[in-house]
Structure formats: structure tokens, C-alpha cells
Specification:
Elements (H helix, E strand, L loop, with lengths): L31 H9 L5 E7 L1 E2 L11 E2 L3 H21 L6 E8 L7 H14 L3 E11 L6 H9 L4 E7 L3 H6 L6 H13 L4 E8 L6 H13 L4 E6 L21 H16 L4 E3 L3 E3 L4 H7 L4 E3 L2 E3 L5 E5 L4 E4 L2 E5 L3 H9 L5 E6 L2 H16 L1 E3 H8 L3 H4 L1 H12 L3 E3 L3 E4 L1 H4 L2 H5 L21
Parallel strand pairs: 1-4, 1-13, 2-3, 4-5, 5-6, 6-7, 7-8
Antiparallel strand pairs: 8-10, 9-10, 11-12, 14-15, 15-16, 17-19, 18-19
The chain binds S-adenosylmethionine.
């Protein structure tokens, strides 16, 4: 049973740990030349992320890197640059390696026309000819921008997973966040995905949006259930108006209070778990037959920039504006500014802007944080063996800090493992923070991170 009484005290700013070190530690000390060397020296199968950044209009809650446009030529121009990037990658990366994962993220990938998407997919397949049979090939979709032709192209291109942005069905909430999307529109899009045989349909919801109440969110949940998704992500709204201008259009006095948010979260968990779903990680739900769930049972769930995945240990190549790549011992990010992204490619350079090379301490902490974030337990001997350290000595201070969580019943520490309790799973960001060696740099983290609760 989850004890929600503990939560308010832990509401503090903190990273979401889709990477460690987190993206704010990326810098330009990791040079272009070093990056090129890293690209060629990773001994792992490939995972590809393509950022397709365009949207027609702004959803005020959106924390993603997007470009608003209604101009067709901007999209065509972007495709030309993506192709330049792919051509250059061939020079530095063995693109004949196996590809185990491909993800189109946004922005709104389906804001490109079906023929534009087809062009992009065929160029990808030409550049990377060795997709494994069971590769996970997925696309984020805004149901308002999806046609039968899009779905045809995705299915033909081997896409087997789709993720639909819904957020909330309440018209008042939708109006406040500038995202009007009817239930019928969403249903039509999901029916289309099923018609074309998509193996997995995901729906994204967000709690913590303006005007949401427990009663209003209950209606959203009932409608969502009618759509019978295979997976769900129910994100805690990350409100960072100092970073995202459009969030300033949200009247903060209309945001639900922390206790309202907790009531919503509590109800959401009860609702989905009593309707045949299991909770995965801190914000996902899936049907028990889902491979994510099988991965948890085997302790093989991983965390990366797309959230939770079964495909760990691959070499992630980020392609397109702002994309982030990840190797065994580095992270690399492309330019966020379109002009600089294009300029690099015009000069015959990959659009790499900044990143970080992980030293041994970073790699040890990354292993600990990611294992706890994904599997909610950590085998201490496994870390000791892998990194040749004495865990108790190495993490003396951190284990001391964890005792506070142990007293609260959020974790259990023994000589061989750290185990997170059911209540602790929802406070996992707080629980792994003591292992983050960079946290101290950011003071109380206000104006840097969103709130954990
Ligand atoms: C790039 S968007 C999805 C693609 C598509 N543009 C759409 O909106 O349907 C990815 C997901 O991130 C989540 N998201 C975006 N901004 C967020 C924020 N500030 N806090 C929490 N989740 C957020 C939303 O649930 C959204 O569906």
C-alpha cells in the first residue's frame, strides 16, 4: 500500500534522471574531435532517435524542443539537412551495425506529410540497412495530425509502436493549455493504428495541469480506459516557465495544489491497477503481457531519454535539432538553434554542440542511479564486481543520507542490496538524489529543475 502522507515533505526540485550526469552538466569541453572518436569506438548495437521538431501551434504545457511553423518549405529544408547529417554519420559510424531501436520524437512527427515521412524513412533504411527482426520502431503522434496515409507509411516502414499525446480530455483544461482535441479525434487515430496492426499503442496523460481536479481527471481516466491502450504514461506536469516561454501563458493560480495532485495520482494508480494494468517505473502503466513488465521481472528494465525501455546497452545516436546521443561513456547533444545546426552541416561537420565524457565516478553513479530508477532495487555485489569498489566505503556519505529514507520506510538497506518500497517508487527521484555528485552545485535547485511531487 502506498502511503501518500509522506509526500508533501518531499516535494522539492530535482532532475528526472533520463541521463546521468543530467543535461545541464553538458558542456563544450568535450570537443568535436573527441566526439567523432567516441562515435567510432562503441561496441554496441545501434538505437536511433530522430527529432522532428515542428508543430503548428503551441501547447502551453509543452516542455519539449519545438519549432512552430506553418511553412511547407521549412519542413522540406529540414529534411535536406537531416539527409546531410545521415551522409556525414556514415563517415564516422559503422552504419552497417544492427539497429535495435528507432524512435521519431517531436515536435509532431506526423505534422510532416505522409510522403515526407516516407522519404525520411527510406533514407534511414538506406543508411542503416540492418534493423533486427524484433527492433522496436516507434513514433510520437498528435492525433489531430494523423491521416490514413501517415499510418500506411509508418506500417510499411516497419513501425510497430505508436504513442499518442492526449494529456487531458476536459475541455476547460484543454482550453487553458491551448490544446483542443476531442475524444472522437483521439479514438479515430487509435482505431487507425490498430487497423494497421501496430503492436503497441501508448497514451500520454499529464496530471498537474490548470483547472484539473480529482473529479475532472476521473472523467479523463474513464475515457482513456475506453480506448484500451497497451501502455500509458501519466506524467507529473513539469512547470518550468523560466525555461519555456509558452508556459508563462498558464495562470499559476489555476494549477492544482500539491495535495490535489497527490489525490489525482493516488486515484490514477488505483484506477489503472484495478483495471488490469501494472505500474512500471515512476510514471508508466502497462498490461501484464507487455514486454516492459517481463523486463521488470527479469530485472532488465532500462531508463533512457525516451523513458523506460527493454533495450538497454545500445549506442544511442541522436539525429536532428537538439537530439541527444548516448554511448557507454559519453552523452552528446546537437545544436538547439536551427541556424547553428544548419551551419555545422553546411561546413561538413556533424551538428554536435556539447556533451560530457563520463569519468569512472560518473559511470559508477550512473549505474547505481539508473538501476534504482528502473528496477527499484540494486544488487551491491554486482556494482562492486563491475567497478572493483567497496560499496560501503565508496558511498559512505550517500548511505548515511539514505538512512533518512529508511526510517520513513521508503527504502530497505542490507549489505547486499538496496530495495525501494512501494511508496518509495513514487519518490524515486528523491531517493537517488544523494548519489548525484552534481546536485550540490545547484543549491536548492529552484529555477533549474521541476518539482519531484
Ligand atoms: C513531444 S510530446 C508528444 C508528441 C505530440 N507533439 C503530441 O503532443 O501529441 C511528448 C509528451 O511529453 C509530455 N510532456 C510534454 N511537456 C511536458 C511537461 N512540461 N511536463 C510533463 N510532461 C510533458 C506529454 O505528455 C507529451 O505527450
Amino acid at each position: 500500500m502506498i502511503d501518500f502522507n509522506k509526500f508533501e515533505k518531499y516535494s522539492r526540485p530535482g532532475p528526472r534522471y533520463t541521463s546521468y550526469p543530467t543535461a545541464i552538466e553538458f558542456n563544450e569541453k568535450f570537443s568535436y574531435e573527441e566526439y567523432i572518436k567516441k562515435l567510432g569506438s562503441q561496441n554496441r548495437p545501434l538505437s536511433l532517435y530522430f527529432h522532428l521538431p515542428f508543430c503548428r501551434s503551441a501547447c502551453y504545457f509543452c516542455g519539449c524542443n519545438v519549432v512552430f511553423t506553418s511553412k511547407e518549405d521549412k519542413k522540406e529544408r529540414y529534411i535536406d539537412y537531416l539527409f546531410k547529417e545521415l551522409e556525414l554519420l556514415k563517415k564516422y559510424l559503422d552504419t552497417s551495425k544492427e539497429v535495435v531501436q528507432l524512435h521519431f520524437g517531436g515536435g509532431t512527427p506526423t505534422f510532416f506529410s505522409s510522403s515526407q515521412l516516407e522519404k525520411i524513412i527510406s533514407k534511414i533504411k538506406e543508411t542503416f540497412p540492418n534493423f533486427t527482426k524484433d527492433a522496436e520502431v516507434s513514433c510520437e503522434i498528435d492525433p489531430r495530425f494523423l491521416t490514413k496515409e501517415h499510418m500506411e507509411v509508418l506500417a510499411k516502414g516497419g513501425f510497430n509502436r505508436v504513442s499518442f499525446g492526449v494529456q487531458d480530455f476536459d475541455p476547460k483544461v484543454q482550453q487553458a493549455v491551448h490544446r483542443i482535441q476531442t475524444f472522437e479525434e483521439t479514438k479515430k487515430a487509435i482505431d487507425l493504428a490498430r487497423e494497421f496492426g501496430m503492436e503497441s499503442v501508448n497514451i500520454d496523460l499529464i496530471y498537474g495541469l490548470p483547472f484539473q481536479t480529482l473529479e475532472s481527471f476521473k472523467k479523463t481516466l474513464n475515457l482513456t480506459l475506453k480506448l484500451d491502450p497497451d501502455r500509458l504514461a501519466v506524467f507529473n506536469y513539469a512547470h518550468v516557465p523560466w525555461l519555456k516561454k509558452t508556459m508563462r501563458k498558464i495562470d499559476e493560480t489555476t494549477l492544482p495544489s500539491p495535495s490535489q495532485k497527490l489525490a489525482i495520482l493516488k486515484h490514477t494508480i488505483d484506477f489503472f491497477t484495478s483495471n488490469g494494468y501494472k505500474m512500471i517505473g515512476m510514471d508508466h502503466f502497462a498490461k501484464p503481457k507487455d514486454e516492459l513488465f517481463k523486463a521488470i521481472e527479469k530485472g532488465e528494465l532500462h531508463r533512457n531519454f525516451q523513458g523506460y525501455t527493454t533495450k538497454g546497452g545500445s549506442h544511442l545516436i541522436g539525429i536532428g535539432l537538439t537530439s541527444i546521443g548516448e554511448g557507454e561513456d559519453y552523452y552528446a547533444q546537437n545544436f538547439k538553434d536551427m541556424r547553428l545546426y544548419e551551419k555545422a552541416l553546411d561546413e561538413g561537420r556533424l551538428p554536435y554542440q556539447k556533451g560530457v565524457v563520463l569519468n569512472l565516478d560518473d559511470r559508477i553513479r550512473k549505474a547505481v542511479i539508473m538501476e534504482l530508477m528502473a528496477n527499484f532495487k540494486l544488487s551491491i555485489p554486482k556494482i562492486e564486481e563491475r567497478f572493483k569498489i567497496d560499496f560501503k566505503n565508496y558511498f559512505q556519505k550517500e548511505l548515511e543520507e539514505l538512512k533518512e529514507f529508511e526510517k520513513e520506510g521508503l527504502v530497505k538497506i542490507s549489505p547486499s542490496k538496496i530495495e525501494v518500497s512501494e511508496t518509495g517508487t513514487l519518490l524515486i527521484r528523491n531517493i537517488v538524489m544523494p548519489f548525484d555528485a552534481y546536485m550540490f552545485k545547484h543549491g536548492d535547485g529552484k529555477k533549474v529543475f521541476s518539482k519531484t511531487v
